[in-house]
Amino acid sequence: MTVSSASEPRGDAAPPGGSLFAEHAKIYPKSVKGTFRRLKWLALVVLLTIYYVLPWLRWDRGPGAPDQAVLADIANRRLYVFFIELWPQQIYYLTGLLILGAVGLFLATALAGRVWCGYACPQTVWTDLFLWVERLIEGDRGARIRLDKAPWSAAKLARKAAKHAVWLLIAFATGGAWVFYFTDAPTLVGDVLHGRLSSDALPFAALFTATTYLLAGMAREQVCVYMCPWPRFQAAMVDEDSLIVTYEEWRGEGRARLRKSQSWEERRSEGNGDCIDCGACVQVCPTGVDIRQGPQLACIGCGLCVDACDDVMARIGRPGGLIRFDTLNGQIARSGGATPSFRPIRPRTIVYATILVTVAGLMIAGLLFGARVSVSVLRDRAPLFVSLSNGEIQNAYTLKILNMVRAGRDYRLELVGIPGAELSLAGAPEGASRSLAVHADPDSVATHRILVRARAEALKGASTPVVFVVTPLSGDAAVRHETVFLAP
């Protein structure tokens, strides 16, 4: 499958003087009505509602725990997502989430091209919102072009100022909502209303306000065409059976304006197709793509050109679908008069779906059945060992027990690997024994310094493998940690 370069959609000629860079031409997307425009509005409303409302949802986790449903509690090193509570030691779940996101994007692209870019990408969603504001204040495509070309006046200044003011309000709401995910939303709003905005929250809110304003208001399609790496990967993800926005060249060419007195039989006899070269598909495209030139890197797969073309075809009495979502194999079949078929199940989609199900299953199993206690053991390195007066060898270890439940828990600590080895807590008045009782406070990390003594004849050499076994007295499964015992 061949994908045209990003510069082709606008039909730019080679820059004069042999320059490698062409001056940016501002794009004025025209409003359009149709099925895909309604889908984009639906996606925009749903996604923005989730983004702005989610920090305000509450979730009861018990006394002493935050009740915000989704919260990245940086100060206390926790991530809360409804019933899920993750510690820094469980960062591997973030790896799994990134794998799910990447492979999910691969699968979506293999099935329907850049459907993510056209409907769910944050850049697309906020750019759509900013364009809606621009149309509301400055008018549709023609009015905006005339306004930009007109000399500066009080009316023009007022319109521009109003537009940028609304953009800044939306950007500030976006940046503020992002900060809500890192602190309790009602508390932060109360602090703002009382003039107590923290020095930590303000820079983040300002940063995301600025980036939203610049990317969605100013950069727009340049983010999709030049900054985003995904268009460069897209060609490797799609094949001849992927649904993409296509143009029926066999039906539309050659292009020519439609004369009022001309019948379609006369038009056909002159070698002209259904495309009347009105440019509606280009005028509604948010990235300025002319889809009639074939698949291109700049096409985000939103389908607005399909709505525009279908509207034109209906007005001139021709069947729709000149521009449509279709596969390349489907286009070949249509051009030959055959019935096209869509094959969603094929080797690459099976591989992507298998990876998704496997990773998601492992993550769900870990969250549902994983132990709520984690153990780490660090052996002292200075000194490596101590030879006692009675001939025994002593090693010291730092034991950390991560108790991930909101209740204090008692544990039994044992050592496996050295017959007759005895354990004791450093600084404790009790003597050494074969096992120790240790405690961890609720929702915390308990640190204990453990001394292990062993007879020299019981050791296997300079380094003896051992296992610390931590068993919750509540009856849960024991946790094991392997290390070594060093001797002369």
Question: Can you describe what's shown?
Answer:
With 488 residues, the chain is α+β, with helices and mostly antiparallel strands. The chain contains 16 helices and 14 strands. It has helices at residues 35-53, 92-112, 115-119, 122-138, 141-149, 154-180, 185-193, 201-219, 221-227, 230-237, 249-252, 264-269, 280-283, 304-315, 328-335, 347-369; strands at residues 70-73, 78-81, 84-86, 244-247, 323-326, 373-379, 386-387, 393-403, 409-416, 422-425, 435-440, 444-454, 463-472, 479-486. Strands 6, 7, 8, 10 and 12 form a five-stranded antiparallel beta sheet that branches. The chain has a four-stranded antiparallel beta sheet with strand order 11-9-13-14, with no helix packed on it. Helix 1 crosses helix 4 (122-138), helix 4 (122-138) runs antiparallel to helix 6 and helix 6 (154-180) crosses helix 8. The chain starts with 34 loop residues before the first helix and ends with a strand. 26% of the residues are buried.
Terminal Cα span: 67 Å
What's the helix-strand series? HEEEHHHHHHHHHEHHHHEHHEEEEEEEEE
Share in helix = 40-55%
Extended strand count:
14
Percentage of residues in DSSP E strands: 15-25%
Q: Please tally the helical runs, counting DSSP H or I stretches of 4 or more residues.
A: 16
Low-confidence segments: 4-13
Sheet with the most strands, sense and barrel status: 5 strands, antiparallel
The chain-level structural class is alpha+beta
CA-based shape:
elongated
Rounded average pLDDT: 88
Radius of gyration: 32 Å
